[in-house]
Amino acid sequence: MIICGDFNTANEEIDFHKTAYSHKLPSCTREERASFKKMLDQGWIDTFRYLHPREKKYTWWFVAYDDRKRNIGRRLDYFLVNKEFISCVKESKTCGEVMGSDHCPIFMRI
Asked: 3-state DSSP call for residue 46?
């Protein structure tokens, strides 16, 4: 099974650009991250983080301050799969070079 979309949560510290007040920003609060973690604890696997445990990539940037050019963003978009399906996932990536929105597309090859 695959679940995908904008979850509006930057799950791990690596998934958002850190500032002094990061943990107070929407999508980065401890409560939001704990709620998302509950889903992962039920067996769902974040395909990007599974394949790229240390890679810092974002899928959303605040448009008003040109944050995309400065790469000050958050990874809010996910492909989640159940543990039985993870062996079918060959690639999972962000497509930050695709412009046109405050989010970039994400891609998964199975």
From this structure: strand
